[in-house]
Fold:
Amino acid sequence: MRYLLLVLLLLATQLKAQQSDETQIKNIYNEALVNGKGYGWLNYLSNQIGGRLSGSVQAQQAVEYTKEVMDSLGLDRVWLQPVKVPKWVRGTPEFAYLESNPGITNNVPICALGGSVATPFGGLKAKVVEVNGIEGLEALGREKIEGKIVFFNKPMDPTNINTFQSYKGCADQRYSGAAEAAKYGAVGVIVRSLNLRLDDYPHTGAMSYGDTPVEERIPAAAISTNGAELLSTTLKLNPNINFFFRQNCKVLPDADSFNVIGEIKGSTYPNEIMVVGGHLDSWDLGDGSHDDGAGCVQSMEVLRLLKATGYKPKRTIRVVLFMNEENGLRGGVTYAEQAAKKGERHIFALESDAGGFTPRGFSFDCDQANFNQVLGWKSLFEPYLIHLFNKGGSGADIGPLKNDNIVLAGLRPDSQRYFDHHHAANDTFEHVNKRELELGAATMTSLIYLFDTYGVVPSSN
Amino acid sequence: MRYLLLVLLLLATQLKAQQSDETQIKNIYNEALVNGKGYGWLNYLSNQIGGRLSGSVQAQQAVEYTKEVMDSLGLDRVWLQPVKVPKWVRGTPEFAYLESNPGITNNVPICALGGSVATPFGGLKAKVVEVNGIEGLEALGREKIEGKIVFFNKPMDPTNINTFQSYKGCADQRYSGAAEAAKYGAVGVIVRSLNLRLDDYPHTGAMSYGDTPVEERIPAAAISTNGAELLSTTLKLNPNINFFFRQNCKVLPDADSFNVIGEIKGSTYPNEIMVVGGHLDSWDLGDGSHDDGAGCVQSMEVLRLLKATGYKPKRTIRVVLFMNEENGLRGGVTYAEQAAKKGERHIFALESDAGGFTPRGFSFDCDQANFNQVLGWKSLFEPYLIHLFNKGGSGADIGPLKNDNIVLAGLRPDSQRYFDHHHAANDTFEHVNKRELELGAATMTSLIYLFDTYGVVPSSN
Structure:
């Protein structure tokens, strides 16, 4: 009899907890959809400030603006964490054309890849050899590559439902294409934009020369997908055409910048820290609304939603807007270094860096016990059509926090439209839908709420 | 022992069926994403033809164009089914302003509701009374309404995750507002656009005078959400302002039109008919890309995908592009009448009429046994992030086919952006994403494939 009472009491407690979770989550979604502030903040970040490349004036303006926003939220503490960032500048607009016969030219849209060296001052003109990704270089060999421009034209695979998988399948030609092609004596590289659709926007993004000596570094640019199709077709008709491009980007000395941080102190376990964040820097071609203005305003909105719904966190919840994800990850690395130095205990970190589209769920980088705890919360998310709970990656900026005792997570929005805009001039505010952005913020807040309420499962190590 | 063998055999058969279903569905998605034709067809329908209001030249062009497309698919039969449709024309552009003092005016964007009468030739100017939906009329009574324009300003509820629920919550003020307000002596009605966002597009849509005598019918127009906010704010400052609007829309005699139909004859059960469709007519303000050009091209794509993947249906699969969903439903009614007359046996019908956005699942109007069969297929859809299988409505055009022996279904795409465009001038091609459209077509085809393979569960009646 006493046992039965105990079981009933336990069930009743669980039911009450379930109901209070349901209520709190409903309150979070309602507040986000009725009074959401993120869209307005993003409007300012995108339309009043614009693209925020590390070391730029705009990046500094974004630091100041988001600190102001955080100051207005009534958090327990807001501060700037110094970060030394690389500074690469694009210079004057790039220019390129195909020359099928002397004087017969077709202009094509290109943009320098982030980190690339310039072409010679007057531009670079050479014959072109097309390869289907880095793996195509070896078969051609030095004989067919030397003195030429290598055209990496491996397209993103349209058959993956998760478009990030297709991105991973060919991002290496952008990141390492120049370093690899230089080994065969190439004089420059042109890379098909990482975009699943045919259009006229070239997509930039980080590249690295690895250990290529400075004097052997060759310029690298992205060409729009329509441009890539034109170049490929023209090469099939006449392999002897010339390609010309000119860019005068360069690397300047490292610059001073900041991560922007705000926190609500935990009432019960103030030393257990939970991070939610995105990256404040962006590429320079568009205004970085999806990548990653969206993630920044959603992360600030998480703390606002907790306060607006009257929730008092038991653990310390910290929003971190990381600087320099795109070309260096210095913000993420610095944050983790400082945390280690101070002996801070991070138990959970969530990043939103996949666009401000309708949220579908999360992916988790954690042990099985913690993942099982998350799966137990699935039904709480069902009314909001959040259905995707996978093990996998989390986010670049929170990656350096990884250890055996932390749960890392990444918001997973619908990915179909992301690469239409990623790193291109059309990553702009009008392509973000207010409700989709707000649903993402509410979904993140709900997960933060649950981890705050139930904590993480201690590591068995 | 013999029993064990039988069980093993059964399990092996089921496993093989499961594998062949997985393979066929994978083939369908790959074909849709690599060689999809729907986006190109929609480009023509939207950009070469445009808005397709029933009885218009464009509606007739759309009939001819989609018949041509079907003719090119190598179907077993393609035909036009005559449908008599109502013909309402908008006339010259509508015009409206608020007049806070004589001569002090603010123009606001409006559009006539479909089916409305015109204002007097010189326009209509009157005082305004604001109500929060039809339910607000009674409290005001004839005394406060007579001689005035009723301004229905009930907004869509932003807290519903499914935006169609919010639409249902206030569509009555658009559909019946004029008939109801006329009972209290109103001289005209202005209705807040059914849009969750604040912008400058007025959204049209069907309205009905019910049994209001012709001489008592009053003109009805929609005002953009920004216009509605302005009007409401101004009324709070000064309840005595005038509102002026002018529209010269009218009803012409019924016109001849068609449903466009194509079919693949079933190899084993040719008399079991499965329908997939959308509606070919649209409103006239935009080009009807989401509503419902998307559903039309997806439905044609279903038959193309079946053929392209080498699948030979056991049952007859028919694509039906219905005419006149928006202001009459004559196509849907005619189709069902003709089917009944010919004694055709329809076992399944699927409609896509909720936009060309990322598909999330289906809703079903059927008995529990058939719904259970569908739930058994859920895991086949998981790799494609299709997770929503609800009981509920299906589609307006296939509704007239309803009986105890048919399964009705509606595609359920992500609904967040739908009402930004619905019935407005910005329902245009550039707001449709190619991959999202293609994923919808593949999802529909996969469901059709499963129903063709396994049939429906016979009614227990």
